[in-house]
Amino acid sequence: MAPNKRVGAAYRAMGSLGIDESKVKSALKKLLKVFDKNWELIEAENYRVLADAIFEDDDNMVPEMKKKTRTEDIHDTHDSLPSFSNNQEDETECEEAQMHIESVQPLKRLRLRGQESQPLHPLTNCATSPPSKRAKLEDNALHEASSGKKPQDKPGSSDGNPRIEAQPLPPQDDIVDKGKQPASTQVLQRGRKLTSERASPSIPSKEPTVEAGKFLLPNNTMPRPHTMIIPKDEPIDEVLDYEMPIAVERLFNDFFLSEPSSVRDSSLKNDIAGKHVSHVTVTSSECRDGVRDEDVIPTSNEEATCNIELASSTLGDVKLSLSCSSALQGSDFRMPSRDQLIKMMEDKCLRSYKIADPNFSVKKLLRDICDCMLEFRNTSNDDPEESSMNVDASKNSQAPSTLSVVRNKDLDMFCHISNGSINVKPYDPQSFLPLAPLNGLNDAVLVSEMDQTTNDFLQNNVRTELEDSMSPNSHSLVVFPQNELTADDIRSFHDVSDLTKGEENVGIPWVNETTNDFPPSFNYITQNLVFRDAFVNISLSRVGIEDCCSTCMGNCVLSIPCACANKTGGEFAYGPLGLLKERFLEECIAISRNPQRHFFFCKNCPLERCKNDGGLDPCKGHLKRKFIKECWCKCGCGKQCGNRAIQRGITSKLQVFFTSEGKGWGLRTLEDLPKGAFVCEFVGEILSVKELHERSMKCTEKGKYTYPVLLDANWDSGYVKDEEALCLDAASFGNIARFINHRCFDANLVEIPVEVEDPGHYYYHFAFFTARKIAAQEELTWDYGIDFDDNDHPVKLFQCRCGSKFCRHMKSILYGLIVFEHNRKLRFFLRFDRGLRII
Ligand SMILES: C[S@@+](CC[C@H](N)C(=O)[O-])C[C@H]1O[C@@H](n2cnc3c(N)ncnc32)[C@H](O)[C@@H]1O
């Protein structure tokens, strides 16, 4: 009989590790038996289980040899060595045994270190699908292969055995596991019981009790910061690395959420067959009926038909994802609806289990699974508040077919069920990259590689702050695109939990409940930065005694107006609570809403000048605004002075979201805001208007746009030099304000120029304040002041979808239509629905 190629390959692989073929044979035999001849399991990770099994054999042999040596020592110490020498085989074995006492650990370390880039330990893959049947050994094949070509010896190893002492020992600290026991086939029989039976939070689940084939484990093919060996004696709990968020997001949701089933099927098939799909954890031959408990067959990804994935993060958040492939079901396979699937499962369970709670439900089962996962995590968490989890299944989310599971008010998770896909998707402040692996990308790219110190630091310092800034709403499902990604896309990733990348006092999360889009790529900055030519002279010497309140102390707004207040028109703009005073605010709103009354026209307008097109068109007008002058570091008051509102930065809970009205991304508040509150500044690159003009031209050519704001509130004071005619552009460098959309006339924010460090009036801060009380969840808007008939406006014109009944754009469209209709005698249907729509 021809030698079995797989056997031969196994010998060669072990040979390349310097392992003697006699050891390979017996270990291989055992494994084939245990694994029911499933070669994939044996071959996984370059025959890792085989190597481990060999080491284990050696380990077992060591005590025997030691015992023997000790016995002979007692009888005759001097005779013991010769007696071994007389027996060549025994001597060799003894040598091996001795050698393994010393060196099996380093060998394993070295091997692991070399495999760092490989998928994780096969343990979990195998463990999720262990064989349930026994089979005959492949004796013949083994025999023939073992009598074939001898594996090449390692250099320095004359007898074919590994000479460990020749290999450098890695530092002990590098090793995550204890290194005493190899991951062995014994471990494969272990698992974690995931039933509704709760583990007591005080008793860590150290004794996995699930039989082979009946348990689920998190998919561990994703990379981890610390690849580790799982010592065989240690419980499976150790496999779960709760120190790091596990970024497993298969997100078959894309397929399940919206597309017709036929589309879904083909996409899914491609995905499953593709290399990227590597998270097969449970495979069932009868997945038509859901996940089958018995006869779980380990299989390759290509054969996968049913996946269950669990993922958790350090916060105890759990994601469970089910997916089903049509690969083995035939072309007419259709994914059942969520309700069909649940009903089918419930019927099956009620049929199968003689004693079942009459109120048994699959949803409850899933929640229980999630609870169990969380409890595993909570056992290591002493915080009683976190340990007591409140599952509220009745809470509905906005998404259809969604089940919300809320753990507690501050740290909740969002369990989404939609057509076979169940996600518990939390806000995860520790992940610096999106949680989802995306097609065409190696998962490794997407998992933050934090070392323990960074991780600990974040846990101690950042998480609480970020958690505080979150609301349950912000944990909603985020669907990541499944398209191929470019390097640019990868660069544009924004942390779901904090788009500001930690730059602001508060984290500002983003959500997209509408499309698969990510927020646009830009660099987050909290302070305006000069691009190149803009003249911004911030120097202490320019701030004269009349421009600051050097003799003030404490909180200026509580005492008589200081020099800074004088510059604001004789009194402080802010009241004692830090809100803008009503009268001041109303004046500012009036300027924005009735600009015609506050326009001034420059004699030599920098905007017209910078066009450099020969002629000089007349100035189109600028708004003369009211300024706020805040106290600054040259003042005697402290940082808590009430006249330093914008300097304290963003304090409100905000969220970037994808609007449903076609405006792209927008900014909303997650909490009620009072009238007159500072929200944020418009931050960007400081450009001269000339630079802006040049940039706009270039951008337009490339189909890109600038996000400019003119700092023209003081251009009426005389001739404005080119380098002093400034603007801000937030397209590439900006802050959260770049997401604030326009609303005609009745916007809920008002923009006010604020001077802080430059008394020159040409450079100032462009700050947004609430124009009225704003309720939580309301989108924040400001009136860009666009003339929709002015094609020359520095802001790229768009079709306004502000929904305001005062919408200027719609008015002009309506006017145009009426004229058109009148002239052409054509009929148009107009519908007044959230503003004017043309149908
Ligand atoms: C400063 S950005 C605001 C954020 C933007 N929506 C985004 O997705 O990045 C300005 C752009 O948003 C869009 N936009 C803002 N307000 C809008 C409105 N009322 N209707 C339609 N589009 C709007 C326009 O495309 C505009 O050029």
Describe the structure.
The structure is a single chain. The longest helix is centred in the N-terminal third of the chain and has 48 residues, at 39-86. Helix 1 packs across helix 3 and helix 1 (5-16) crosses helix 6 (139-146). 30% of the residues lie in helices and 11% in strands. The chain folds into three domains: 5-182, no CATH class; 243-379 and 387-521, no CATH class; 529-784, Beta-clip-like (Beta Complex). It starts with a helix and ends with a strand. The chain is α/β, with parallel strands linked by helices and 839 residues long. It has 20 helices and 22 strands. The chain is elongated. The strands form seven sheets. A five-stranded mixed sheet has the order 5-11-12-20-17, with no helix packed on it. Strands 6, 7, 14, 15 and 16 form a five-stranded mixed sheet that branches. Residues 520, 663-666, 707, 738-739, 741-742, 796, 798, 800-802 line the site of S-adenosylmethionine.
The largest sheet is: 5 strands, mixed
Give the N-to-C terminal Cα separation: 77 Å
Query: Which stretches of 5+ consecutive residues score pLDDT under 50?
Result: 68-304, 380-483, 824-839
Give the neighbour order of strands across the main sheet. Answer: 5-11-12-20-17
Class by SSE composition: alpha/beta
Q: In total, how many beta strands?
A: 22
State mean pLDDT (0 to 100 scale).
63
Query: Number of helix segments?
Result: 20
Summarize the amount of helix as a percent range: 25-40%
Number of domains: 3
| Computed Rg | 34 Å
Form type: elongated
Small molecules in complex: S-adenosylmethionine
